[in-house]
Each structure stands twice: as C-alpha cells, then as structure tokens.
Amino acid sequence: MEIKEIIFIGLVVWNAIVFLVYAYDKSSAAKRQRRIPESTLILLALTGGGLGAFLGMYLIRHKTRHLKFKLVVPLAFVVQLAVIFWAIAR
C-alpha cells in the first residue's frame, strides 16, 4: 500500500470520526447533556476533518446558525481539498 493510499484511508476515517462527534454533540444538545466545546469542534475541522464537520453541520443541522462555524468549517474543507489535490498532482 502506498503512502497516498494510507493518508487517504486515514482522512476518510478521521472525517467519519469528526462527523460522529458532531452528531454526538447534536444529540447531547437535544438531551440537554454535557456538550463538546465549540473550540474542540472547530479544531477537529481544522485538523483534517473539514468534510466530516461540513457534513455534520448540514446533514444533521448542527451549528449552522453560528457565524464562526459557517465561515471556518467550509474554509477548512476547501483548504483541505486544495492540499489533497496539490499532493496528488505532485
């Protein structure tokens, strides 16, 4: 297995985890339970989980009213896509 395949699989797994964290936080909010800090959710998006965070925001409608999430999460996703395409093109 090549390094690019390993990185791709790692990103897929990481984004699935980030999506599940967003879903867990949404569930916790509905149950009025302890929440995951917003800074942690943003950090997850910035550390390679942009797609998972983006899908979490729009598929389960979580954090869509918060301006910082509306700006940071899609930007993180686009930057991560650009880095991936750049790495593939090399």
General shape: elongated
Q: How do the helices and strands follow one another from N- to C-terminus?
A: HHHH
Overall average residue pLDDT: 95
As for the number of domains, it is 1
- Biggest sheet architecture: none
Which percent band covers the strand fraction?
A: under 5%
End-to-end C-alpha gap = 18 Å
Please, could you describe this protein's structure?
By secondary structure, the chain is mostly helical. Helices cover 78% and strands 0% of the residues. The chain has one domain (3-89). Helix 3 (50-59) crosses helix 4. The longest helix has 28 residues, at 3-30. It starts with a helix and ends with a helix.
Provide the descriptors you would attach to this structure in a database record.
90 residues
Q: Can you summarize this structure?
A:
Helices cover 78% and strands 0% of the residues. By secondary structure, it is mainly alpha-helical. α1 runs parallel beside α3, α2 packs across α3 and α3 crosses α4.
Q: What order do the helices and strands come in, and which of them pair?
A:
Layout: H1 3-30, H2 38-46, H3 50-59, H4 67-89
